[in-house]
Specification:
mainly alpha; Arc Repressor Mutant, subunit A; Tetracycline Repressor, domain 2; 2 domains
Length: 214
Amino acid sequence: MEELSPRAQAKRRQITDAARTLFLGQGFARTSMDAITTEAGVSKQTLYAYFPSKDDLLIAIVAEALQALGGPPGVGAPRTRHELRAALIGFGERLLGAMLREESIAILRLLLGEAVHVPELRNTFLEALPYQLLGRASAVLRAAADNGVVVLDHPEISVRMLVGPLMSYVVFGGLMSNDAPQHPGVETIEWLVDAYLRTLDDGPADAESDGGAP
């Protein structure tokens, strides 16, 4: 997406805020683009200039909820097992911090509930959440592998062994709970990352530099 001016950013946020309110209040399928223009106080022309479809709007709303995860690491990091551990713990903290909020859980429930009735939304959900999370975690691991820290025989499978347990807290402590989302705590994330790292072989450079410490 090309960089927007401050005014355009404000207008875009005005639209996504209105759509989020309507989607969460009455459901995705039951919200029309006409209703969104009214709620946002914009013209149809303006709405469609920013978001050609409701799917685009929903993707944008989910993307906003994921912004707290940050982007992939720089090309030069991580260079040691300790740096990889810190990067993965940071990823886990950001993931659960972003997902275990009441609004994030409400958006996920909306996506999952509507995807049952609207098949077109299933790919939207996969692209907006699981693939995003797997891609970000994979970027950390691939950067470590490129620097010789670990050996990744099957990175696409391996990354699921980390993201899956983390997301189980979102499912059981958020989506399926009648109470407010419960964060498992940093110590739990550290334990999960350490358990995951034990499944990875040390790269030769890292084994020499720090003895393959977790």
